């Protein structure tokens, strides 16, 4: 075999290897496999890191109705310590509740607000919410101030199926408003005349 034929053979093999590799992938090609959604939002500012923040949506094919609630899951880290004092979701929820009150962040300590029941709850959704959407979440810290980030809504499926939706608070039972009954007096009322009967004469 001449040198020219050897070069031609090597060039042909080099061209065929990628083609054969692609054919071998077939239905198992990476583009045909399920890939989980991208991780939640991550922001670092003013010494505070917000990691993997996302909203837990409904199961695939359904929506959370207006007026409903949704849980937010995330992790927080403050280099020098801080405190999460409030949160809001403009255009998405009427209010955001911090279950248990403000969250204290000890210095250089990761605080996981990952459940099983969410500590950050969107209440009074202004419109329906489903997986695949993105909302604006504003977290306000005592030292770092307000931090705004775009948070994905993840459908409650696959790796998110183990997360819990917000607990439904029981409606308090109405208090009884009965009229108190008047007590009967045990003291006899005095006689109308108030005089003793006459004593007979001997």
Spans of at least 5 consecutive residues whose pLDDT stays below 50 are: 17-38, 170-174, 182-202
Any idea what the CATH architecture of the domain at 36-159 is? Sandwich
- The total of beta strands comes to 10
| Number of helical stretches of at least 4 residues | 1
The CATH H-level homologous superfamily of the domain at 36-159: PCu(A)C copper chaperone
Oligomer: single chain
User: Percent range for helical residues?
Assistant: 10-25%
Give the N-terminus to C-terminus distance in angstroms: 170 Å
Strand percent estimate: 25-35%
- Elements, N to C (H/E): HEEEEEEEEEE
CATH class of the domain at 36-159: Mainly Beta
Largest sheet: 10 strands, mixed
Mean pLDDT: 78
Provide the gyration radius in Å: 36 Å
- Coarse morphology: globular
Please describe the topology of this protein.
Blueprint: H1 3-25, E1 41-45, E2 48-56, E3 69-78, E4 82-88, E5 93-98, E6 103-105, E7 110-113, E8 120-125, E9 134-141, E10 145-154
Parallel strand pairs: 2-10
Antiparallel strand pairs: 1-2, 2-3, 3-7, 3-8, 4-6, 4-9, 5-8, 9-10
Walkthrough of the structure:
The chain contains 1 helix and 10 strands. A hairpin with a 2-residue loop joins strand 1 (41-45) and strand 2 (48-56). It has a domain at 36-159: Immunoglobulin-like, CATH 2.60.40.1890. The protein has 202 residues and is mainly β. Strands 1, 2, 3, 4, 5, 6, 7, 8, 9 and 10 form a 10-stranded mixed sheet that branches. Mean pLDDT is 78; it is low at 17-38, 170-174 and 182-202.
């Amino acid at each position: 075999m001449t040198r020219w034929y050897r070069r031609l053979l090597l060039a042909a093999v080099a061209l065929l290897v990628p083609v054969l590799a692609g054919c071998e992938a077939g239905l198992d090609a990476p583009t045909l496999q399920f890939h989980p959604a991208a991780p939640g939002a991550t922001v670092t500012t003013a010494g505070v890191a917000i990691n993997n923040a996302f909203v837990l949506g409904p199961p695939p094919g359904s929506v959370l109705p207006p007026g409903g609630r949704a849980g937010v899951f995330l992790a927080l880290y403050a280099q020098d310590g801080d405190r999460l004092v409030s949160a809001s979701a403009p255009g998405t929820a009427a209010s955001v509740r911090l279950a248990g009150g403000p969250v204290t962040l000890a210095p250089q300590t990761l605080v996981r607000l990952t459940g099983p029941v969410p500590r950050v709850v969107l209440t009074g959704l202004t419109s329906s919410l489903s997986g695949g959407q993105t909302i604006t979440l504003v977290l306000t810290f005592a030292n770092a101030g307000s931090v705004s980030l775009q948070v994905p809504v993840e459908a409650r499926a696959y790796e998110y199926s183990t997360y819990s939706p917000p607990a439904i608070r029981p409606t308090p039972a109405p208090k009884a408003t009965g009229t108190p009954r008047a007590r009967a007096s045990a003291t006899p009322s005095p006689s109308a005349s108030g005089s003793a009967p006459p004593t007979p004469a001997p």
